[in-house]
Amino acid sequence: MTRARLSGITVVVTTLFVVFAAWLGGDWGGPRTLGVVSDVGSVAAGGFAVTSAAVAARASRGRQRRAWAALTVAALGWLFGDVVWAFQELVLKVDAAPFPSASDAGYLMFPVAACVALMLLPIGSAGLSQTRLVLDGIIVAASLFVIIWANGLNDVFTVNRDSLFAFALSVAYPISDVILLTVALLMLTRARTGQRAVMSVFCLAIALMLVSDGAFALLRARDAYASGNVIDVGWTAGLLLLGLASLIGLRSNDIEFGLARAPSRASLWIIYLPLPAATVYMVISPASTPLLVAALVLVFGVLARQFIVADENRSLLVAVAEQAFRDPLTGLANRALFLDRLTHATAMQIRDGRTVSVLSIDLDDFKLVNDSLGHPAGDALLVDAAERIGTCVAAGDTVARLGGDEFAVLVEDGATAPLVIGDRLVDVFDAPFVVDGHEVHVRPSIGVASRAPGDVVDDGPESLLKHADLAMYSAKRSQHGGVHAYTADMHLIDVSEVDPPRDREAKAKRYGSAGLQLFAQLRRAIDEAELTLVYQPKFDVATGRLAGVEALVRWEHPERGLLLPDDFLPLARQNGLMGALTEAVMRRAVDDAGAWRARGVDIPFAVNLFPPSLGDLELPDRIAGILADGGLNTECLTVEITEDFLVGNIRRAREVLVHMRRLGIRIAIDDFGSGYSALSYLRDLPIDELKLDREFIAPILDDERAEAIVRAVIDLTHRLGMICVAEGVENAATAARLATYGCDLVQGYHCGPPVEAAQVPDIRPLLPAGVVVPGRRG
Ligand code: C2E
Ligand code: CA
Ligand code: CA
């Protein structure tokens, strides 16, 4: 229903009504004419109300639909009453339609069905009982009845003793109107903006009908009512307004019926307002059956209401208490409850002799989802993740969401080893999450900390969570995710460096939602070993012999074509995929080297490492394991590390490098001179090879200072027992010059561009420096 259409209908209806009201008000024509006008007008108004409510019902769904349907029934009841009344007056020509008559069955249906409609309309119900609203209505109606009874109605009653039923019926109308009006008014006080128009018009309609019904009861008692009386205007107006309320409701059909506003203070006491006066009148008025009935209704009504309120309060208290310990999004325990259980568990463990463990879980790529797909998507993912975590633990364990994408599990029964639970958790995160139609891979980093009953406890139970957190950071740092168990040396980890917030923002801006897709694809490419390698040769300058090859990663993207490292490494780096990528590259290189060996050549190869992975103490063994799987010696591998790893944790890096060296793996410093080179690490770290950055190599032919630096570095490497590699050698003259400096190896487009694995065994030796081969790429 458009606004214009609604306005049009309102204008037409109002005009017709004004004519009708003027006619009855002006007493035009004789009583007969007035009767006809009144009857026809009433039936027309009833018809309008029925049609509008039915249209609203048709157009809406669910509860709202049922509400409008109930209102249609209510209006139908009234229409039926009007039609029967008009039939008696106009067709049967009964002078004055008898009261009560069949029409009253219809009229009485109105308040009942309308009340049902109100209770169905989910307006203003903040989970509180609609029954209470109806009780409120009954209490107000009963109070008002008592007051009016004591002030004159009593006398009318005594006069009408003979037609008791007629009297009761005529009084029943205003009483039910008061109930309806009270319920509607209370709902109005709690309705939200979109719902207020409907409720206001509805209240006005019932108020007008109340006036007419009240007047009718009085006139009836004196036998002074006849059709065409000006009080008919109230009913007609009421019906028309009900019709309009339905149409307004239809217009605002998509008002979300969510949480209502809190009820106003006034609405809490207003229903009790007439009660004191009613109580006084009940006491001082002479006893009579109607008064007694009203008194009983009042007492039981108030009692029932008190009971309902007390029950509601109880449920609210339970809900509030429950919420204080629950994470509202996932329904898991929150930090407060988790710490409470943890404290309890550690206190109990001496007695029970059980080991208490905490797993700290952080989702590695969660921020990316939040930033690129929006918070609702992030929330959906968290709910899903919470469910998955729940499937990994026993019934007695506590799963909590500590905030953001951090979860924790408290394992008290010790039946399952916490590391086993950790592994299960890693497994359940293998399947992608589907949010907003995107497949998103999110992996957890998990830290485990345990405390056996015998362990010396010198700090509070919270330290167990702290230890689990540190282990989790260690897992995160390793870029492999997975499960790490807490060890005391983890205190060396600089937590702030694990998850730099600035990077996260930059990444989200850079990749957006397309980035997320690319990221999911990259994850798959890594997992399914879809990445390929090209190999660039390094030659011995003096002899021209092939000294080895460097593996450079490539990604043959199904839609975007061949991607170079710069196109996707940043994405991998910022999302914790580097560990997995390094491993994939390592495996692929080992496979390729195995194939070369099968063709009769053993060619040493170099693999680039992601510098922060030097924080991963298990890396050397993992690499050695991969080599062993491929049946290769550790000596054939060189790892290349750019010097920026110094920014990280040098102590751990040293430990990792020493370990690698001990295993027989060679170590090269990549891009030397491009960053903040520090001589101290040349002194302190076990390095075999220094690769001079091409920024220094390119200008040596005509820049004396560059030349001086290159010569000095070559000299330095030799004195330190390392070999020197010149990168980015793009022409023969440069190669020749480097040879005169005593540089050991050269690498670059001139010497040999990167080639595919299958071509590596066919690489020809480089002619000794200075001899330029025609046609060779320069
Ligand atoms: P890098 O380790 O310095 O590798 C050498 C890069 O220089 C390669 O680019 C290579 O194609 C290019 N290049 C070789 N000769 C010349 C030359 O004469 N002139 C010029 N201008 N460039 C030359 P690519 O393959 O695009 O790799 C870029 C960087 O990506 C690499 O720099 C390396 O830091 C990184 N990267 C490549 N593969 C991997 C990998 O598997 N793991 C990790 N962590 N990083 C990798
Ligand atoms: Ca390199
Ligand atoms: Ca390099």
What is the gist of this entry?
The protein has 778 residues and is an alpha/beta fold.
Write a structural description.
It comes from Mycolicibacterium madagascariense. Pfam families: EAL (PF00563), GGDEF (PF00990). The protein is α/β, with parallel strands linked by helices and about 775 residues long. The chain has 3 domains: about 5-130 and about 160-255 and about 260-270, Rhopdopsin 7-helix transmembrane proteins (Up-down Bundle), CATH 1.20.1070; about 335-500, Alpha-Beta Plaits, CATH 3.30.70.270; about 510-760, Alpha-Beta Barrel (TIM Barrel), CATH 3.20.20. The chain is about 55% helix and about 10% strand. It is built from 25 helices and 17 strands. A hairpin with a 2-residue loop joins β2 (about 400-405) and β3. α5 (about 130-160) packs antiparallel against α11 (about 290-325) and α7 runs antiparallel to α8. The protein is elongated. It starts with a helix and ends in a 22-residue tail after the last strand. Residues about 500-510 and about 770-778 have low confidence and may be disordered. The site of one calcium ion has 4 residues, from β13.
